[in-house]
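lol ok so funny story. i was supposed to be doing the assay writeup but got distracted and ended up predicting the structure for this chain instead. priorities right. anyway since i did it might as well share w the group, maybe its usefull for someone
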Amino acid sequence: MHDHRRLGRGLNLFDTDPLIGAGLPYWLPDGAAVRHTLEEYIRSAERRAGYQHVYSPVLGKRELYEISGHWAHYSDDMFPPMDIGGEQVVLRPSLCPHHAVIYRSRSPSYRELPLRMAELGGMYRSELSGVLGGLTRVRAIQLNDAHIFCTLDQAAEEARAALEMIRRAYEALGITATRYRLSLPGPGGTYVAAPDKWQRSTALLTEVLDRSGLPYEAVRGEAAFYGPKIDVQVTDGAGRESTLSTVQVDFHQPERFDLRYVGADGAKHRPVMVHRSIIGSVERAVAHLIERHGGAFPAWLAPTQLVILPVSDTQSPHAEALAERCTDLGLRVETAGPERGSLGARIRESRLVPYQAVIGAEEAAGDLVALRLRDGRRLGPQPVGDVLTHIRTLIDAHSTELWDTATSS
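and the output, tada:
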């Protein structure tokens, strides 16, 4: 079983310090490379899907969360208010109230809908010390969040498209959904008292799941306080299940913030708000990726994508020149020379790196490279340009394959 806390520290991805505080991990350079690459993948996927990116502050007046309903239904999980200049300000537990306010400032026409607004933004949860651990339960969260403001007729298609984005992301990340869950309200929870809205949103999400053909189960007691949601569940090495991605339909906050759009008839109408998170929190996503892959990330996500191994000091200048070519192509590269031990030792040390480029006398003389793949395959000497182009192509495609089988030996 891979434990992301042990692996994350052993691979120099992240760490914690009591002086910074419990539930507040910091990211080391290799972990930051993984996180940055993951965030850029998500932003790129969102841009292609027609999302517009925004930034919003991590603080908000208490009144903002009173309007949204978070203060009444969620304040136990929020940090206490701070008194600033006679106003109470809180660290946000969610991004959706900010996005509702941004939407409200625009007064859009129906022609602008669906309006897809996305942000990779910080939010904060006052988690109890006893439940904190590694990256899975933290107090400072970087959330991949988005809100789609649309007409009622558009809501089902937007929710379906969000599920498809999740499917494609999981494929690129090399992870698998354990199950899809329709999360409904249950007894004892603090939910918004609006039976008609719950009925409409539940029917809409049920329709989306039924039409998608995805197997799912309805579970009581797992809904958000303002509406039902589709939760995409994953399982770690210990068999513990958690939610990684969500799609939600919200009729509550558009009403609370009095959101409107101008219809074709010139009148004002209420939009539907679809909440959607492709990978949820970056912290939990990286934790799952560490455990799923044991640190052997897909090549496009790996902190070091290629390590160059000169056989002797004579080939070191060629190795440095190759490293420069790799960097110019946007590859994350490292050179491990003879000063770090025998070739065999360096190969073992680099076992999690997707590509190992060995340069001996033959390779240096002919501008060739002998490539070793992380899965144990070895490729004979090939022109450097061909190898780098092929690696770059696979990485740009976010492929989980290290090489085309037909070209390996």
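The mean pLDDT is 93. The chain has 13 helices and 20 strands.
back to the writeup now i swear
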